[in-house]
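Journal club prep, notes for RB
We'll compare a predicted complex against what the paper describes. Inputs for the pyridoxal-5'-phosphate case:
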Amino acid sequence: MESREFKLVPNSGIMATQIYQGGEQPNSAYKHIIKLNSNENPLGPSKYAIQALKSSFDFLNYYPSSSHKLLRQAIADVHDIDSKQIICGAGSDEIISFICQCFCAPNDQVIYTEHGFAMYRISALLRGAIPVKAYENNRIADVDNILKQCNNKTKVVFLANPNNPTGTFLDDNKLKFLLDKLPDNILMVLDGAYAEYIENFDSGLSLVEKYNNLIVLRTFSKIYGLAALRIGWSYSSPEISKIINQVRGPFNISSPAIAAAIAAVKDVDYTKYCLNENLRNREWLSKEFKNLGLNTTDSKANFLLVDFKTDMLAQEIFDHLRSQNIYVRKVNDYGFPKSLRITVGTKNDCRRIKNQIQNFLRLNNEI
Ligand SMILES: Cc1ncc(COP(=O)(O)O)c(C=O)c1O
């Protein structure tokens, strides 16, 4: 039968956008890999999260909570914030997309930092909006450059703090300066996906009371070790929260995910343990890389951006590690063709990757 000519036309921006290229997800049945390419927690989730997840299996025939009331309350209790201003999403990715859906129309402008997380640009493009790059200063977001890019078409500014893939960080004074200067009809998004890796850092939650054009994002995919379950949340003024909630699907998070997230956020001792392990291993690994003559960006998160002499050497090391079942992330798309982003693994993972890189550099007379 002759097929009919395809005549459907998607909205502008949809097909022209290059979709997200994540780190390779190996077959999960294969145990002998070291996966350091997506900034996941190598220690896994809290044991209480796994228990809660298992218990939730008895109720798979029921729809999940639509209000996420218990999860919002658990988050609010731990962070001492108002549960009514929290919105939960299927990963913070979903909330990034909600933000663009709510606030961007075709040809509006969205500001992202030079080496900012790819989903900001992608979500803006999918709405037909124009992503505008604000240059960084030595791999650190530059608030003056962000402010210079603002005009009457600007609707949203996205800033991850610490940033992925650089790991660099802006202190509270710089954030307050930015928020004070930013016109209040522009939404400021502070993405704290890695906030829990910095001790006593609230990633802007306490600023929400003062700035009603601020939304803070968080995720359960990083320190909480629940990336597979897809849970993120936002905190913002009641007005912003109400707007975002309008576009949220009624059952956007599953009950197993909700149950696990409640248990995970309550297990503050385990979160602290993961924070300390990351600090220890990150310090060790960056020191070892330095001893090998490799520069790493000063990271406050659970990964290191490691620079090599040439693009080719970065590619060869990537291929060599891959052949040893060690997965790291290429960051050419972020403008770092000479670098690799390496998630801080367990102590053992860190030793193995350091030894593999050292051996490779030695065999190739690079050290
Ligand atoms: C800065 C940043 N924001 C958001 C996300 C998305 O996280 P989620 O798994 O919650 O969608 C990531 C994931 O890598 C990230 O690095």
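Talking point for the session: The mean pLDDT is 96.
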